[in-house]
Design brief:
Keywords: 4Fe-4S, Iron, Iron-sulfur, Isoprene biosynthesis, Metal-binding, Oxidoreductase. By secondary structure, the protein is of the alpha/beta class. The chain folds into 4 domains: 2-189, Nucleoside phosphorylase domain (Rossmann fold), CATH 3.40.50.1580; 194-202 and 386-481, Cobalt-precorrin-4 Transmethylase, domain 1 (3-Layer(aba) Sandwich), CATH 3.40.1010; 206-289, Rossmann fold (3-Layer(aba) Sandwich); 291-372, 4-hydroxy-3-methylbut-2-enyl diphosphate reductase, catalytic domain (Cobalt-precorrin-4 Transmethylase, domain 1, 3-Layer(aba) Sandwich). It has 18 helices and 20 strands. The protein has helices spanning 11-20, 37-42, 44-47, 89-98, 117-125, 135-142, 165-189, 206-222, 236-245, 271-279, 290-304, 318-326, 337-340, 359-372, 386-399, 414-423, 440-443, 459-470, and strands spanning 2-8, 28-32, 50-61, 71-79, 82-85, 103-110, 130-132, 147-155, 194-200, 226-229, 247-250, 261-264, 283-286, 308-312, 331-334, 349-353, 404-408, 429-432, 448-453, 475-481. Strands 3-7-6-4-8 form a 5-stranded mixed β-barrel, surrounded by 4 helices. Strands 18-17-19-9-20 form a 5-stranded parallel beta sheet, with helices on both faces. It has a 4-stranded parallel beta sheet with strand order 11-10-12-13. Helix 4 crosses helix 7 and helix 15 (386-399) packs parallel to helix 16 (414-423). It is elongated and about 85 Å long.
């Protein structure tokens, strides 16, 4: 049985793909079907024994933004009135991008003729990125097997076929096709049935949901633009979606016009930032998570009685900067156990914790503080938020059953990074922003995949990962739930329903 059968229309395409596949890659066959959907359909008998099917070769761009040599990975193939999904496209596209190729993911149309002029524009208006003449029949013949369609752009609306300039596009496309083969072999090697173990709870917490809703309601009530100091939560997808609705994210308030609506992020701000906003007449809506507000109140209470506050956390994190600003003359940042030894003697010590730390990491540092200062006092309730704690407990449980753990979250999300660290003690674990960040080599021997998401990562990203894995083979999903979360926070008066 062939592990991967790669179909091309032309001999020049087949040679370019073969040239790029290493000799050590077994179970890979490259065939020429002939040009057009008729020839591709007649090759169906040759497709039956392949574990995974791929179509590659040259293609035509339908709209602007694509140039000769660019790569299109089909998210779906439209052919003969049918739409054939290609769910593993983000995984393959990510692999091609890491190989240095310019990649786009989107719909591919299979036509029985060369598409030009008004038809080309119509297909582009319908959202398709590129057109070919062979992928549709092969996609239909896949019948549940892993399938991929990868087209390298030769012609564009500006440089159509049968023009001298297309020759240069063909040369570029051949060079690119040589680089397509190795990612396709890794894609096929990652195929097979899988068990996905959901850690629960996962994804958005109440504080994140509240912060996002505050920005959405502010946009609805006051209209765009609504300015937001820093990222409202640490997730690139959330930020992009809000930007599309009219939110403007800034690093500092001097980038905000005077008197406009301004939202403070969920991580909180220092009194100095609040004072600056007041001086500039900004219409502030505070989206600080109530659990962060609690830490600020504890910091002020400890400092008011004369304590030196050891703030356990990571330098540069926005939550830490806000808390440091509350009591600048009474606080010392403690990032690890070694920092405890540098705390000065002769003053009562209390300690507080960043809300998104790993539970055991923070506990070790707090224990070191109590060992050195016998009367050291901590917060009345644990500072690490319930959502962080629950997600860490849940991912620890699934990691013990997993060959691989994927944590969905952005790299600047502290709680997401901590989840990957916790999971990594039991199994290989990786932080990903979405399915395109999953290296196919991680999946080659992983039959049980643990999956969770940081408190700032949208649930839809988790669904996208499962869908992409499903494009590599059958997926069975089971959930491991360690807690139920019912906490809700009220909205600020500026955005409550009237």
């Amino acid at each position: 049985m062939t592990d991967l059968l790669i179909c091309t229309a032309l001999g020049i395409e087949a040679r370019a793909v073969r040239d790029g596949i290493p000799s050590s890659a077994g179970g890979v066959e490259v065939i020429r079907t002939g040009m057009g959907p008729g020839h591709a359909a007649r090759a169906e008998e040759r497709l039956g024994k392949a574990g995974a099917l791929a179509v590659t070769g040259f293609g035509g761009a339908l709209g602007g933004g694509l140039r000769p040599g660019d790569v299109v990975v089909a998210s779906e193939v439209r052919f003969g009135g049918r739409t054939l999904p290609c769910p593993s496209a983000p995984l393959l596209a990510g692999e091609l991008a890491r190989a240095g190729l310019p990649v786009r993911v989107g719909p591919l149309v299979t036509s029985d003729h060369i598409v030009t002029g008004a038809e080309r524009r119509r297909l582009a208006d319908e959202g398709a990125l590129a057109v070919d003449m062979e992928s549709g029949p092969v996609a239909a013949a896949a019948a549940g097997r892993p399938f991929a369609a990868v087209r390298v752009i030769v012609d564009t609306p500006e440089v159509p076929l049968l023009r001298p300039a297309t020759i240069r596009g063909g040369v570029l496309a051949c060079r690119t096709l040589r680089q397509v083969g190795p990612p396709l072999t890794r894609w096929a090697a990652a195929g097979g049935p899988r068990l996905v173990l959901f850690a629960a709870p996962r994804s958005f917490c109440a504080g994140v949901e509240r912060a996002i809703e505050i920005v959405e309601r502010a946009l609805d009530r006051y209209g765009p633009p609504v300015y937001v100091r820093k990222q409202i939560v640490h997730n690139l997808h959330v930020v992009r979606e809000l930007e599309e609705r009219g939110a403007v994210f800034v690093d500092e308030l001097d980038e905000v016009p005077e008197g406009v609506v301004t939202v403070f992020s969920a991580h909180g701000v220092s009194p100095g930032v609040r004072d600056e906003a007041a001086r500039r007449g900004l219409r502030v809506i505070d989206a600080t998570c109530p659990l962060v507000t609690k830490v600020h109140a504890e910091a002020r209470r400890f400092a008011a009685r004369g304590d030196l506050v050891a703030l356990i956390g990571h330098a540069g994190h926005e939550e830490i900067e806000g808390t440091l600003g509350e009591i600048p003359d009474s606080v010392v940042l403690v990032e690890d156990v070694d920092d405890v030894a540098a705390l000065p003697d002769g003053r009562r010590v209390s300690y507080l914790t960043q809300t998104t730390l790993a539970v055991d990491e923070a506990a070790d540092i707090a224990a070191a503080i109590r060992d050195r200062f016998a009367d050291a006092e901590g917060p009345q309730k644990d500072d690490i938020c319930y959502a962080t704690t629950n997600r860490q407990h849940a991912v620890r449980e699934v990691a013990e059953e997993s060959d691989l753990v994927l944590v969905v979250g952005s790299a600047n999300s502290s709680n997401s990074r901590r989840l990957a660290e916790v999971a990594g003690r039991a199994a290989p674990a990786h932080l990903i922003d979405g399915p395109g960040d999953i290296a196919l080599d991680w999946l080659a021997d992983a039959r049980a995949v643990g999956l969770t998401a940081g408190a700032s990562a949208p649930p839809a990203l988790v669904d996208a990962v499962v869908a992409a894995l499903g494009g590599l083979g059958p997926v069975t999903v089971e959930e491991r739930r360690v807690a139920e979360e019912t906490i809700q926070f009220t909205l600020p008066k500026e955005v409550r329903s009237r």
